[in-house]
Amino acid sequence: AYTYNPLIRGFFEKGLLDEAMKLGEEMETRGVLPMVSTYNTYLYGLCEHGKMEDARQRLVEMTERDLAPDIVSYNTLIYGYCRLGNLKDAVILFHELRCRNLVPSVVTYNILADGFCRLGDLESAQQLKNEMIYRGNQPDVFTYTILVNGACKVGNLSLAQEFFEEMLHRGLKPDLFAYTTLMLCEMKLGNKSTAFSLQEEMVGKGFPLNLIVYNVLVDGLCKIRDLEGACELLQKMVCDGLPPDHVTYTSLIHAHLEVGHLRKAREIFHEMLLKGLSPTVVTYTVLIHEHADRGRLALAFMYFSEMQEKGVLPNVVTYNALINGFCKARRLDLAYNFFNEMEEKGIVPNRYTYTIVIDENCNIGNWPEALRLYRQMLEKGIEPD
RNA sequence: GGUCUGAUUACGGGGAA
C-alpha cells in the first residue's frame, strides 16, 4: 500500500481523479489492502479539488471497512473546507473529531487558524492559538507564520511584528517561510532597510535565498515606487542565478502602469514573453485593470481577448476589473454584458462585483436597479460588507 | 523514510489625504 500512495497522489495532483480511483481498485484486486493512509490520500486528493461530498463519503466508507479515520483524516477534511472558505463545516468537524476520541493536533489548529486568517478573521485565529496553548499544544513556526501573515494581510502590521517577536520569545527558530513573511510586512511598512537586513540575516543563517524572497523584495520596492531599486535588484537576481519569473514580471508591469509608463510596461510584458514565460491570469488582470480603470477600454478589451486566445481563462477578479472600468467610464450597458457573460461561464460574481455595479447604479440615480442587485446578491448567499 | 498545515504578483465601496 505504501507503493501505491504516491502513485494515487500523483494522479490526483494531475486532476485525474478517476485514474486515481482506478489505481486504488487495481491495488485491491492485487490483494493489497488499503490502509488508513491510503484513505487519507484519497481524502486529500478529493479535498484539493473541492470535492467535499465525495470526501465525506470516503470517510464513511473507511469507517465501514474498520479503518478508523485518524487525526490526519480529519485534518485533511478540515483543510478542504477551509480552502473553500467554509469555516462553518470546518469547525463542525473540529468538534466532531472529539466524538471519535481523537484529539486535535497542532496541525489541526494551524489549518483552522489559517482558514480564519484567509477570511480576515484574525480574532478567531488568535483565539485558536490561545486555545491550543491551553490544551497543551504548543504553537509552532507554522502557527506563527500563519498569524504573522494573517495580520499582515489585514494591514495590522504592528500585530504581525508582535507575533514574530512572540515566536522568538517562545524559543522557536524562524525558518525561510517565517522570515519571508516578516519581510513582506516590513516592506509593506516601507521599512526597506529592515527588510534588506532581514535578507542578510537569512543568508547569515544559511538559508538559501529563493525566487519568492526576491519577489517579495521586488514587489515591495515597486509598491513604494522605488522602480530603480527594483531594477537593480533584478540584476542581482540574475547574478544569483535566480532569473525573474512571471510573478516578478507581473509586479514590474503593475508598477510601471501605476505610474503611467505604458510604453515601458509593454516592453516588460514583451520581454517576459521573449524569455518564454507565460503570462498568467494575474498578469492579464493587472493589464486589464490598469487600462480599464483609466478609461483605456479598448486596450483592456484587447488584453481580455488575447488572454482567451492563449487559453488563459479569466476569473472573477478579471471580470471585476473589466466591469469596474466600464462602469467608471459610464458604460453600464457594456458592463452588464460582461456581468452576464461571466454568469454564463459559470463564474460566480462576488462581493466586489456587486459593489461595483450597485455603486454605479447609485451614481446614475437608478435606485430601483441598485436595490434589485442588492436583493439578488442576498439571494445568492453573498454576504455584503 | 514513504498520508495533513504556513511565505511572493491582480479587482470594489466608504473614510482620510
Could you please describe the fold and organization of this structure?
The protein is mainly α and 385 residues long. The protein contains 22 helices and no strands. It has helices at residues 4-13, 17-29, 36-48, 52-64, 71-83, 87-99, 106-118, 122-134, 141-153, 157-169, 176-188, 192-204, 211-223, 227-239, 246-258, 262-274, 281-293, 297-309, 316-328, 332-344, 351-363, 367-379. It starts with a helix and ends in a 6-residue tail after the last helix. The relative contact order is 0.04. The structure holds one RNA strand of 17 nucleotides.
Helical fraction: over 70%
> Looking at the chains present, what oligomeric state does this protein adopt?
single chain
**How many helices?**
22
Radius of gyration: 24 Å
Strand content: under 5%
Low-confidence stretches: none
Count of DSSP strands: 0
Sheet having the most strands: none
Q: What is the 3D form? A: globular
Overall mean confidence score, pLDDT: 95
Distance between the termini: 48 Å
Counting helices, strands and paired strands, the structural category is mainly alpha
Element string (H = helix, E = strand) = HHHHHHHHHHHHHHHHHHHHHH
